Automatic annotation (TrEMBL):
Gene Ontology BP term (one): cobalamin transport
Domain Transcobalamin-like C-terminal: start-end pairs: 76-136
GO MF annotations, alphabetized: cobalamin binding
Protein name, entry field: Transcobalamin-like C-terminal domain-containing protein
Keyword hit for Signal: yes
Signal peptide from the UniProt entry: 1-29
InterPro entries tied to this protein: Cobalamin_Transport, Transcobalamin-like_C
PANTHER family in the record: TRANSCOBALAMIN II, TRANSCOBALAMIN-1/GASTRIC INTRINSIC FACTOR
Species of provenance: Myripristis murdjan (pinecone soldierfish)
Cellular component terms (Gene Ontology): extracellular space
Keywords of the record: Signal
Entry coiled-coil feature ranges: none
């Protein structure tokens, strides 16, 4: 008799399930830390938390961090051959005359620190990696 209220009930249940699926707790989120440090000047280290999605690239995680944390900002430039690379972090840019740049390092959960052989556009962090953005000289 009152099929429209039944329809509405079904609609409500389906929407609720879809909403729960979309916001199910962090099933596809792999936490990482970002450590910003400076080898050139004496400035305090800063650590931030964000996450990557499954097989997500570091560049996406850095953009997510920038959107969610007013204390973190970065810029990158697009190299024709090598893709995006870090230009500035928190307002400090690499400088050809001073021979400074932002180096990308990764500290894995076993404590090893490695320098990825790819840039921020290709590097795929693992859960609980510490991404180290280190301002240094070349
Ligand atoms: C920043 O962190 C690095 C690595 O943990 C450490 O070696 C360095 O001493 C720290 N620098 C400062 C200024 O705290
Ligand atoms: C971490 O470093 C140690 C010592 O250099 C090495 O034996 C080990 O294989 C490294 N682990 C990974 C996952 O690379």
């Amino acid at each position: 008799r009152n099929s429209s209220s039944l329809d509405y009930l079904c609609y409500t249940i389906i929407c609720t399930l879809l909403t729960l699926a979309a916001f199910s707790p962090a099933s596809n989120q792999y936490p990482i830390n970002v450590l910003v440090m400076n080898n050139v000047q004496q400035t305090p280290n800063k650590t931030y938390s964000t996450y990557v999605v499954y097989r997500g690239i570091l560049l996406g995680a850095l953009k997510r961090l920038q959107d969610s944390d007013a204390d973190f900002e970065f810029t990158y430039t697009e190299d024709f051959n090598y893709g995006p690379y870090l230009h500035s972090v928190n307002g400090l840019a690499g400088n050809n005359i001073a021979q400074t740049y932002w180096e990308l390092l990764v500290k894995t959960t076993d404590g090893n620190i490695t320098r990825p052989d790819v840039g921020i556009g290709c590097y795929i962090p693992n859960a609980n990696d510490q991404i180290i953005l280190r301002y240094t000289t070349w």
